[in-house]
Every structure is written in C-alpha cells, then in structure tokens.
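Quarterly update from the structural biology core.
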Amino acid sequence: MRFVILIVAGALVGCTGGASVAALKTQYPIVHYHGPKAPATVTLEKSRPANWVGIHDVSKVAVGAIIVSEDWAFYQHQGFDPKQMQEAFKENLEEHRYVRGASTITQQVARNVFLDKGKTMLRKIKELYIAIRMEKSVGKTKILESYLNIAEWGEGVFGIRQAAETYFHKNPRDLTAKEGAFLAMLLPSPKRYSQSFRAKHLTDYAESTVDDILDKMVQADYISSEERATEGASKLSFEL
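Predicted structure, tokenized:
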C-alpha cells in the first residue's frame, strides 16, 4: 500500500514534494486569519515569529492530552496510521456517509501547510505522500511543534499560545492536564465545541470527552491515577 501511494503521489504532487517539504524543518508555518467568512491560509517564513512556542515551552501534560486525543500512535507511525484508516473506512461505509476521518497529526500539518482545502481523492493522496516525506525530512519534534502553533482552537484562535491565553489566561507551559484535555476536546470542531467556554460550564459532551481524554492519559502514562482523580474533580477557571 505504501509503495503504491509513493508511486502515484510522487507523480502527482509536483512542486509540493522534495525540497519544499523539507523547508518545514528550518522554517515556520504562519497562520493568516482572514475573518470568519474566509478560510485561514498558512505560509512558511524563515524568521521565527515572536509568538512561536517551542515544544519544550508547552506543558508535557497538555502535549500528552493532545496526542492521546488526536493521534495516539504519533511516535510509532511513519506519517499515517493504517489501522485507523481501515477503521474509519469501515465506519463511514457502515454509516453510508462521512462520519470519521483518520488523519494523523503529520497529515494535518501536511494538509494545512502544503495543500488547498478541497476534499478530493487526489488531495488525500497528496496528503499521505507529503506526510511520509515530512516524517523522513522534518522529524517528529518539528512536526508536532508546527501542529501546536497552527492548530485552530476557536474563531480566530490559532496556536496553543493564543489558545492558552484565550481560555485560561495562561502561558502554555503552565497548562494543567484538564486544561490540556479541554483544548484537545476542542480540536475536531473548535468553533462548535467552544460553546462550553461561552456558556461558562462544560456541556455533557465536553465533560464526557474531557474525562475520556484524562483516562487515556493515565493509560499512556502522562499522568497517574491519583493525578487523574484530582484533575477530574477540579473546575476549569472559566467555570468558577
């Protein structure tokens, strides 16, 4: 399967492969917000932005919450997760509609930095190809760091620095496990799921999802069972 993807995509990607993908290793993706009615765009810049957050400047528990929620096998796969892709395909087929994606963190960075927003089979093939190239030429640390700096966490809220400030008035390095879990909960649909913040209390869905992420963090050894109990019983600052 991987060999076929490389052959097909290598012939189709053109200028989006090779050196341009490797540029992410030394350059920085910058999100340009164009308002609520236009999609944000991303460009690569050579100079490190003033608001860029290094991977070691984000609390480990917040990073852990995002990994177990978005891409549990991030440090094991080589750009895509065949098992998740198979399960997503089966679920979508059973529902006769698109209900679940299977994009890894690497694929999400590939899509947001190098591709347009169209949902086509060709774009998906390009996304897989670029993700594989990124894993080889850029590496896990910069991929994850880039993801944290360009992910959308609400209307006009891009990057974990702005997310931490918007929701908790904190520096990313000071985020707790539950705060990280809340931010992870937002990622699939930040504009929709941020209603908990606007309402000043967790919706049933948000509370259930945050609890599930905390449980996964225990399984992945990001927090202990005792820490999970303490975090689960705590209130987020906007709920107080």
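Residues 2-235 form a domain with the Penicillin binding protein transpeptidase fold fold (CATH 1.10.3810.10).
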